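INTERNAL AUDIT FORM
Audit reference: QA-55
Scope: verify that the stored structure record matches its stored sequence.
Auditor: D.O.
Record contents follow.
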Amino acid sequence: MPSSPTYDADDDDVRMVPNRKLEAIREVKHYAQGSRPRLDAWEPASTTASTTQNSETFNAGLNDEVWTSPVADDYRTSIDAADSGAYEAIGDIVSDLTDAENAFYDAGLDMVPEDSALARWPLT
């Protein structure tokens, strides 16, 4: 993150307001943190009229008792990689957002002058 000016909160002439960019980062982080439970709860369209399957049940359904072939192995591997990749990506996003959030707190920029760009986020 580019360096940001620090503001003297003790200056009585400057009205301090919440940092809207920081608020936006927190909102996106909150949404990203909720992505894991939403991913767990997601069920794709059913493959038959009476059942629904998520990636885990679909992958389990491709076991050796059902379908023994290199293609089934490839599908199982691809499904596992997609699941793991999605969780890893969500974790990376949350980590990056936490770092950005902490950078604002560490710089003392949770409150900023009302006329600053950070108080008018997005820049309007």
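Auditor finding: record pair retrieved intact. The longest strand covers residues 16-18.
Action required: none
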